[in-house]
Design a protein that fits this description.
Layout lengths: L2 H52 L4 H27 L3 H18 L1 H16 L7 E4 L2 E8 L3 E5 L5 E5 H5 L4 E2 L6 E9 L5 H14 L10 E7 L4 E9 L4 H18 L19 H9 L1
Antiparallel strand pairs: 1-2, 1-5, 2-3, 3-4, 6-8, 7-8
Helix pairs in contact: 1-2, 6-7
């Protein structure tokens, strides 16, 4: 080895020694922070998981919050380690800001669905198992993800809707309350006895085992139509019994009215021939 090579080698060893001497403690501290930080984050994640389970937080929201908190903690850990080594915090801020802008521009629609999912999971306008009507779709909520909500319709179709649209729409939750009202719209002839009809229909509604005693079933004259009397009968059931009961009640009421001899109305028209007196006019002429 020549004297020049020997001199370069000596300079390199001096530089390496000086670097290790200056950065060695920082690197050791950074390694200690990394190991300790990972252990601490895992302990915090377990504690959060237990807390969320005791608080009965929705599974989808629980998973999302745990992932978000872990991501934030790991980001803080990496920034702290970089600052300990000597990297300026402004560099991390610039990198994170640029990455955030790029991701935001690339995922505009997904971010809207993400925000909608967070709102749904926090404010809970509905939960898994609820029957809801939203965006002209009726179905039972099968799953709530952070981006999409999945419904199962009565004919066993799967409808997947973006949470951004769901969060910005009117949601008709039909199972949130403990009871739901059934309304039967009936029509009768002008000569029908409303009191007798009320007695027959109300007694029929009360006989169904799934009809609630309070509020009690009732019936009243809703309006007087052009050809018939319009009557409304109502009773209350649990939300899960709504459709079976309403179908069974229509059939039971029809049979009870037929047994009582109360007919359904038939549309009628009176026709007057020119020059031929009506019955009322003929009666008036006879009396005078």
């Amino acid at each position: 080895m020549s004297s020049m090579d020997q001199e370069i080698w000596e300079q390199f060893k001096d530089w390496l020694w000086d670097t290790l001497t200056a950065l060695g403690p920082k690197i050791a501290l950074a390694i200690f922070m990394l190991v300790g930080g990972i252990i601490l984050i895992r302990l915090l994640a377990r504690l959060l998981n237990k807390t969320f389970r005791r608080s009965r937080v929705e599974p989808s929201l629980r998973t999302f919050l745990e992932s978000l908190i872990k991501f934030a903690l790991y980001t803080i850990l990496i920034v702290s380690i970089g600052t300990t080594i000597g990297i300026k915090t402004s560099s991390f801020v610039a990198i994170i800001g640029a990455a955030g802008i790029a991701i935001g521009l690339a995922l505009q629609g997904s971010l809207a669905n993400f925000a909608g999912g967070v709102l749904i999971l926090i404010f809970k306008p509905f939960k898994v198992g609820d029957l809801i009507y939203v965006n002209d779709k009726l179905g039972t909520v099968a799953k709530i993800d952070i981006l999409y909500t999945r419904l199962v319709t009565f004919d066993n179709r799967i409808i997947t809707m973006p949470n951004g649209n769901v969060a910005n729409s009117d949601v008709d939750n039909r199972t949130m309350q403990e009871s739901r009202r059934i309304g039967l719209d009936l029509k009768f002839d002008y000569n029908a006895d409303i009191k007798a009809i009320r007695r027959i229909v109300v007694d029929t509604l009360k006989q169904h085992p799934k009809v609630l005693a309070a509020p009690a079933p009732d019936l009243w004259l809703d309006s007087i139509g052009e050809y018939e009397l319009k009557v409304t009968a109502r009773c209350w059931v649990r939300p899960e019994d709504y459709w079976p009961v309403i179908w069974e009640q229509y059939e039971a009421v029809k049979e009870a009215l037929e047994e009582a001899g109360i007919p359904m109305p038939i549309q009628k028209q009176e026709v007057y021939w020119k020059g031929v007196p009506t019955k009322r006019e003929a009666t008036w002429n006879e009396q005078n």
